[in-house]
Amino acid sequence: MTKILFVCLGNICRSPLAKAVFIQKVKRAGLEDKIFADSAGTSGFHEGDMADPRTIQIAKINNTPFEHTARQVSVDDFHKFDLILAMDESNLANLLRLRPENSGAQVHLMRSWDDNKTGIEVPDPYYSTGLVEFQRVYDILNHSCGKFLEHLKEAAAENATDSQFNVEEKIK
Ligand code: 4NP
Question: How far lies 15's CA from each of 5, 11, 105, 127, 149, in Å?
Answer without folding.
Answer: 9, 6, 17, 16, 16
